[in-house]
Task: inverse folding
């Protein structure tokens, strides 16, 4: 937090460490040791000081580094983890939320989570921000909390949220959940490609790819005899081999070249629009294993990779559809050619250098492949026409080049542009079967031509030339890159880390700094001996560096010059690189195993099961006693809708550590001069000193400078003996268990008994275990099913008078062919059968083993309210065969559609009596509704809705206040003569009018203007708002209601 400065002082030319050099900053001084190192601790900058100056002295040499600043380490922070049971809810369902609050404290080099105690504020809001509930929740001794609330029946759909706040606004977080009406899925689908090999184009021989899809029921069994519809689509795409993202593959174009050229516009459109090659439909049905597959046959030649997408829509017997898909890539050739430019633009007459590689699809370099390059330039040549006028004639520069690829590095391919303008370049290769792969670049800009361009383009190109010239003169010591290769991808605390440092030059002195939200441990020095190109550095991993730290490596020495200088063939050299290394969080991990007493993981509805949770230390497998455990058992069908998952607590409470070391390198500020350019530089300096063009030095005065910045099982018939009553399933809560806080015993175990709901599905069991610093997670899946099952697919609601056809699926999960009797009994609904007024109706079918069948029950609603339905399926009573059965009871709301029919007429009241005949509408339901007759003035009737809207509007900015005053005052006489039932009494309106005028007065500025909300100094009057408010006041005056208006407002 207070900042630690580490300085490495070395000889500029050789990189040899300098000892006994004095390093000072902020009135603190230290001497360097034999390794040229010194450390100044507690180097904390003053509050009002952003940057400081570092001074290094040794004898007569003095060096100053300005703009030194320190990155401050992160302070202690609060971290929240809040989660719910399933993420998706219907109205009237219960929402369960649990959360943990930790304070991440800095303890030495470690960042450790600690318990937080106290009370938190909780505000529950619907998706539109309307507050549903507010409460306070106390954190338990584990720094955890849990809440439960029920969603209203009429809650808005969308993303609801809960706001949690610690007292005194120390920290807060917001947790979101979805509120929707949805149909519960009964199965899950997946797809796969049978072979995972690479696919290539072939000009003559048909190639094929097999793609399959599969459907499985959550309650067990396969989705057989389901309809499948495939859509297969192919289109061109791009492909970059692995680890070759720094090269261009496929089509590319310059984004720095601007032109109104029609060809360029078309080229851009070609890049943006995808080429659809084919779009084909297939249909079929799934087999006994719920699978269906297609064979996609292809052949032909292409110069670009083609992506083929296959999408399968699987529709069950009850018309429920789910989609799954896969895609695969067809490569045009066994090889890919990639390139990159050394410079972003070229110059006429000077070589343009490109680096070209040929790789296979995995990114490996390929040797001895002929690369063909075609270059076409477009420019303009200045000529005179027959009348002597200067014209610009379009010309082209076409070149063809070849080069052979290398498996060691990129090959260099140069071409010399003869024109100034834009160049299109393409590179192509062929494999052994003659298949072609091509990459291209459009609109590479070459300056130095006679092409007419827009004025701003000329300026841009002038800047490019200027920058190029300056780069040729002023070349700083470059920052080279060194390699850092660790001996492992991840480490455990106590492991030895071995780093192989690969150097770009030798001999050299190096330094290793370890960064974990700031410098940790002491710097580690190393050397690269002369004639060698690597060195090894070792150090021990600390648990305080969990979950990661950064290694900064610096290398200092000298290297031969590119430009020969008589007195010094070497120049200063510096290289730097950083790499992040992972330290496993397993040190703080708890192993959580979840199991049940029963060996068979297939259960029946409403059964009672025991879930056994065992929590142990990951490091030594010791029991984790007194650990808090949260147990959740939830329907996987609901989870599948949103792919709801629980996050890893270790990753949340041990977040990644950031880099906090700021590096300063003085060598990268040293200029390297080309001796041939020194005189040119002197000339430029003189010109800048005596030039008045920029007004910087003229007039006898001077100025200063500045700076810059930058599942399985068998069924037994014993459970369904003859004469046994069939249980009716009616509890379909997707949440089977929510136990937010239980504590393990001394053996690290806890057993929780739960009673399953009546769903036929697969449940996901989640167990989260925590203590102060350790966290663990375990899960289990269990299936609830019956030998024979009945699954109705019903709508969410019915309307009065509706006729509906209920689709019911019967499923035989046994290996026997069974005769099944199924029926429906209804209340407040009429079964549409041949015999009227029958309360029940049924079918008899024979269902083969492991098969499903769909049957339909037609019904009609009787009254508004709730209609209840009982569905049953069972086998006939027969002592020679097993007996199975299933029954389900559900209720559906029956609504009365609130349809109002209105008719309006008008007439004059000059006669004493006006007769108006009224005819009752046809086909009305006499037991519902009413006939309402309203008379009013036509003036009021035409504006009633507007006045009501203005009066009930809840926002009161100046615009709304003025509009309300204006509307009510304009219709004041009408409102007094004809009372509107939606508006309050006239006296209440009068009071409201006076209140609005007073509020308007409080928003007037001293200059008479009005703002939207306030007249404070930090705001200003708005001209449009002022005009609207003035118009309102003028109307009030014209209506002779002056007493309601302060005269000062008018004046």
Result:
């Amino acid at each position: 937090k207070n900042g630690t400065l580490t300085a490495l002082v070395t000889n500029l030319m050789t990189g040899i460490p300098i000892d006994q050099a004095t390093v000072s900053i902020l009135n603190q001084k230290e001497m360097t040791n034999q390794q040229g190192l010194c450390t100044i601790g507690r180097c904390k900058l003053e509050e009002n000081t952003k940057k400081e100056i570092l001074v290094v002295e040794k004898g007569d040499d003095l060096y100053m580094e300005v703009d030194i600043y320190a990155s401050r380490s992160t302070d202690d922070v609060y971290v929240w983890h809040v989660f719910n049971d399933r993420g998706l809810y219907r109205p009237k369902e219960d929402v369960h939320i649990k959360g943990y609050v930790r304070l991440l404290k800095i303890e030495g080099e470690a960042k450790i989570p600690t318990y937080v105690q106290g009370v938190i504020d909780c505000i529950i809001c619907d998706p539109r921000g309307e507050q549903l509930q507010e409460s306070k929740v106390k954190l338990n001794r584990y720094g955890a909390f849990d809440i439960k609330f029920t969603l209203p029946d009429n809650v808005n759909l969308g993303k609801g949220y809960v706001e949690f706040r610690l007292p005194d606004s120390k920290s807060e977080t917001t947790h979101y959940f979805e509120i929707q009406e949805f149909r519960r899925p009964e199965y899950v689908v997946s797809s796969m490609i049978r072979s995972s090999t690479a696919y290539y184009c072939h000009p003559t021989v048909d190639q094929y790819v097999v793609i399959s899809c599969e459907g499985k029921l959550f309650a067990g069994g396969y989705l057989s005899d389901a309809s499948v519809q495939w859509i297969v689509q192919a289109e061109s795409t791009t492909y970059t081999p692995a680890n070759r993202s720094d090269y261009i593959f496929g089509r590319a174009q310059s984004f720095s070249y601007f032109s109104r050229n029609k060809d360029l516009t078309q080229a851009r459109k070609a890049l943006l629009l995808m080429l659809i090659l084919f779009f084909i439909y297939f249909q079929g049905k799934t087999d006994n294993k719920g699978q269906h597959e297609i064979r996609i046959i292809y052949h032909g030649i292409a110069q670009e990779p083609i992506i083929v997408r296959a999408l399968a829509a699987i529709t069950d017997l009850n018309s429920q559809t789910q989609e799954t898909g896969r895609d695969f890539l067809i490569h045009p050739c066994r090889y890919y050619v990639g390139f990159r430019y050394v410079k972003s633009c070229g110059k006429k007459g000077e070589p343009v250098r490109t680096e070209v590689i040929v790789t296979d699809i995995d990114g490996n370099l390929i040797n001895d492949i002929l690369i063909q390059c075609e270059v076409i330039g477009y420019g303009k040549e200045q000529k005179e026409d027959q009348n002597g006028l200067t014209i610009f004639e379009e010309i082209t520069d076409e070149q063809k080049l070849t080069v052979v690829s290398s498996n060691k590095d990129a090959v260099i391919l140069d071409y010399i542009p003869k024109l100034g303008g834009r160049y299109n370049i393409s590179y192509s290769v062929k494999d052994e079967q003659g298949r072609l792969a091509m990459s291209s670049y459009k609109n590479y800009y070459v300056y130095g031509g006679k092409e007419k361009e827009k004025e701003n383009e000329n300026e841009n190109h002038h800047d490019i030339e200027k920058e190029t010239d300056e780069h040729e003169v002023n070349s700083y010591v470059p920052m080279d890159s060194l390699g850092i290769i660790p001996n492992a991808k991840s480490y455990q605390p106590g492991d030895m880390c071995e780093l192989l440092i690969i150097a770009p030059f030798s001999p050299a002195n190096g330094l290793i700094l370890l960064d974990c939200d700031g410098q940790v441990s002491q710097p580690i020095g190393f050397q690269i001996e002369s004639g060698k190109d690597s060195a090894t550095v070792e150090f021990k991993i600390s648990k305080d560096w969990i979950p990661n730290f950064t290694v900064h490596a610096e290398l200092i020495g000298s290297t031969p010059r590119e430009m020969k200088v008589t007195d010094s063939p070497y120049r200063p050299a510096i290289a730097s690189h950083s790499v992040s290394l992972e330290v496993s969080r397993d040190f703080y991990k708890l192993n959580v195993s979840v199991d049940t007493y029963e060996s068979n993981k297939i259960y029946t509805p409403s059964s009672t099961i025991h879930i056994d949770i065992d929590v142990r230390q990951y490091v030594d497998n010791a029991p984790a006693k007194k650990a808090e455990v949260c147990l959740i058992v939830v329907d996987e069908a609901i989870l599948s809708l949103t792919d709801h998952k629980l996050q890893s607590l270790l990753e949340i409470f041990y977040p990644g550590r950031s880099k906090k070391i700021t590096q300063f390198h003085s060598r990268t500020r040293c200029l390297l001069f080309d001796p041939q350019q020194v005189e040119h530089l002197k000339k430029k300096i003189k010109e800048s000193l005596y030039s008045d063009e920029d007004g910087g030095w003229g007039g006898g005065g001077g100025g200063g400078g500045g700076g810059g910045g930058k599942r399985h099982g068998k069924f037994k018939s014993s459970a369904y003996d003859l004469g046994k009553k069939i249980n009716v399933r009616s509890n379909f809560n997707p949440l089977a268990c929510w136990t937010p806080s239980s504590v393990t015993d001394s053996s690290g175990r806890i057993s929780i008994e739960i009673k399953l709901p009546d769903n036929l599905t697969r449940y996901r069991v989640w167990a989260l275990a925590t203590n102060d610093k350790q966290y663990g997670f375990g899960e289990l899946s269990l299936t609830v099913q019956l030998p024979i099952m009945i699954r109705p697919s019903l709508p969410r609601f019915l309307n009065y008078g509706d006729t509906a056809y209920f689709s019911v699926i019967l499923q035989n999960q046994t290996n026997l062919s069974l005769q099944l009797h199924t029926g429906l009994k209804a209340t407040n609904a009429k079964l549409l059968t041949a015999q009227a007024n029958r309360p029940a109706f049924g079918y008899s079918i024979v269902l083969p083993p492991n098969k499903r069948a769909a049957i339909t029950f037609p019904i009609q609603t009787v009254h508004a309210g709730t209609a209840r339905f009982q569905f049953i399926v069972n086998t006939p009573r027969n002592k020679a065969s097993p007996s199975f059965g299933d029954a389900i009871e559900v209720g559906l709301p029956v609504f009365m559609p609130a349809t109002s029919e209105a008719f309006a007429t008008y007439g004059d009241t000059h006669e004493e009596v006006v007769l108006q005949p009224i005819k009752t509408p046809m086909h009305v339901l006499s037991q519902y509704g009413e006939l309402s007759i309203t008379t009013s003035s036509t003036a009021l009737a035409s504006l009633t809705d507007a006045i009501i809207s203005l009066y009930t509007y809840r926002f009161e900015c100046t615009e709304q206040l003025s509009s309300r005053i204006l509307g009510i005052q304009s219709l004041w006489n009408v409102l007094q003569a004809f009372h509107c039932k939606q508006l309050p009494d006239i006296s209440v309106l009068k009071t409201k009018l006076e209140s609005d005028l007073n509020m308007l007065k409080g928003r007037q500025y001293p200059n008479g203007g009005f703002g939207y909300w306030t007249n404070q100094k930090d705001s200003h009057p708005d001209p449009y708002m002022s005009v609207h408010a003035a118009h309102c006041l003028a109307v009030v005056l014209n209506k002779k209601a002056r007493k309601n208006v302060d005269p000062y407002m008018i004046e």
Observations:
- The radius of gyration is 40 Å.
- The first helix runs from residue 262 to 272.
- The domain at 77-179 is CATH 2.60.40.1930 (Immunoglobulin-like).
